[in-house]
Amino acid sequence: MSxxxxxxxxxxxxxxxxxxxxxxxxxxxxxxxxxxxxxxxxISARDQFLxxxxxxxxxxxxxxxxxxxxxxxxxxTAVDFICGEVSALDADAQRVRVEIDGCEQExxxxxxxxxxxxxxxxxxVAGAAAHAYRLxxxxxxxxAAALRARLTETAGDPVRVVVVGGxxxxxxxxxxxxxxxxxxxxxxxxxxPGFKGARVEKAVRAELIRLGVQLINGESVTEVQATKxxxxxxxxxxxxxxxxxxxxxxxxxxxxxxxxxxxxGRIWVDANxxxxxxxxxxxxxxxxxxxxxxxxxxxRSAFAALVSGAYAADAILAQRADRRLRPFSFSTFGQxxxxxxxxxxxxxxPDDRQILFVLTGGTARRVxxxxxxxxxxxxxxxxxxxxxxxxxxxxxxxxxxxxxAIEKAAxxxxx
Length: 415
Ligand SMILES: Cc1cc2nc3c(=O)[nH]c(=O)nc-3n(C[C@H](O)[C@H](O)[C@H](O)COP(=O)(O)OP(=O)(O)OC[C@H]3O[C@@H](n4cnc5c(N)ncnc54)[C@H](O)[C@@H]3O)c2cc1C
Fold this sequence. Notes:
By secondary structure, the chain is α/β, with parallel strands linked by helices. Strands 1, 2, 3, 4, 5, 6 and 18 form a seven-stranded mixed β-sheet that branches. Strands 8-15-9-10-11 form a five-stranded parallel β-sheet. It has a three-stranded antiparallel β-sheet with strand order 12-13-14. It is about 30% helix and about 25% strand. The protein binds flavin-adenine dinucleotide (FAD).
């Protein structure tokens, strides 16, 4: 932590939750149940809840927040909401520093839930940070709102848009842009075809091609310039607008604090979602990387954020009651990808792999919209009835399997 003195006295909490995305908000709501009697603080950079899964919609028009004020949403609960930027974490001293309107405030905690999520990774490719737009909230010069302004200003011109990345975010961005600006020349560049298996890939491609999106596969973009992108094979693709959707990474705050993290800045966690290096800090959502099996594979998603956030709260409450929870695990239900006004959806029970049928068209889009709505509906019900949310697959991993995985991970570290 920086050496400068913070303003005001250090505020003590039993649990501090860092980040109010899906994972942090559900954890705070559950921990803050009045009957629990815990002093809980939830810190987040903004008061408005950002539904990241709808960011592609905001390329076309501003998206009205379903939870317009987190402070108001938490009214009547025992959670202290602190709207500020977490600027430093001292994991050993159990302190966190928050910048609020230019002033620094320090909070002390017995336990913390680290839920600071992720951001689009533009750090690893030359020129991406300077020249590419990304699906991020806020007013940044390269955020979704800025992309909307740029596309609106060029409407009517035959603008060339290159979307880099062929997974969910890239597909959704390309589909949305081509639907709203049909005159735009939209190209999506992806490294590896085979998104979610052959059937899903085929359905996604058919939807994109129907819209008129051009697909370049098997190419890695190595540099973004103001008017073109360059690929590893030496190809140059001209563009007026580049949208970067080439992967996510987490903030360096955890690594800077000395927590064990992976190459993408996610905190390595054990079967109870505790940091393997600092057991009093739990990590959830996009910021966590479990080293033990989790039933369905743990990938960054709104559902994984909800289940891990709820589990972390349960684990803290259980530990305080001298109980230990079964290892964290879950099953998935399905997935939906928005492609303009249409989409692709499929059942993925229980292991995040497509089974049964693949839905396409407007029906797939409506089903996706329903599940996106459901995520915030879950948060609203959890606010009224903390502990209400439960999920399938909570008994999929035994302690023996978890301990074997921990042993194996330790061997790898020793080797
Ligand atoms: C464009 C896009 C589309 C997506 N579509 C889907 C989808 O269709 N389905 C799906 O399941 N998943 C989707 N995802 C992934 C999904 O949005 C994430 O997995 C999910 O948001 C993770 O939730 P989280 O709570 O861990 O983190 P986040 O939602 O990232 O929340 C982190 C919170 O921490 C706050 N924060 C971060 N740093 C600081 C700091 N230093 N100080 C204070 N506060 C801070 C942020 O403001 C935010 O409130 C999509 C992601 C993107 C980017």
